[in-house]
Every structure is written in C-alpha cells, then in structure tokens.
Design goal:
single chain; alpha+beta; VC0802-like; 2 domains; 4-stranded antiparallel beta sheet; 3-stranded antiparallel beta sheet; 28% strand; globular; ACT-like_dom_sf
Length: 132
Amino acid sequence: MSGETNLDVLLKSMRPVLRDGEYVFCTLPHPAAPDLGALAPVGLFHEDEGLTLLLRRERADAAGLRYAGTFRWLTLSVHSSLEAVGFIAAVSTRLAAHGIGVNPVAAYFHDHLFVPSARATEALALLESFAR
C-alpha cells in the first residue's frame, strides 16, 4: 500500500489546505436516481437509509435539496496510507479539544475534513500547529 504510515511524519508534514466554497451533506431516499452531473458531488455514500451526497452549497440550493449545516473543506496535503493508524484520531482530537466537530473523508491519496463553516479558519490554524 502506498502512502505514509508513520504518525509523527504524517502530523509534521501535513499541509492543510482550506478549499474555496461551502459544502453540505444531503440525503435522498432509495432508490434515488439524481442527475449527478448537474449536482457534481464531491462524494457520495450509499447508506441503508438513503443516498448521502456531499456537494457545494449552491448546487444543493439550485436543486432544492435540504441540508442541516454548511461546512468548509480542508485537505490534509500529505499522501497518507489507507492503513495509517491514528492520523485522523490525532487530528479530530485536536479539533475536539477546541469544540470543533469534523466529518472526515478518506480518499486514496489524502484525508479530507469537513468542518463547520464558521470554525474553518480556526480549524486550519489548529492543524497547522502540528507542523511546529
């Protein structure tokens, strides 16, 4: 498996990047067949209760989809292994200590965090402190 597994290296070398825009989590009942091209989700997950879509807020608004909150997207720019142990735990523990919730998404090359929009700048600063 490619990617870094050493927790100290991961924490010291990650460079969190705050992406533009706000994102939302929406759900559609099964058997939903949305026009994914128009929605352009950055993620989706099939759950027993329905299809969860993660997409830009303005696309959800245009489609009339409901959501409960808005989030900003932070990418942890270090190639973390899918088998790395403790990386997301350390990151989420740091954010939790400051009352910041996090919705992590693991992808092949990087881990991504969706944090409440109002706390995104604070979350970014806390994550950058790992490198110091």
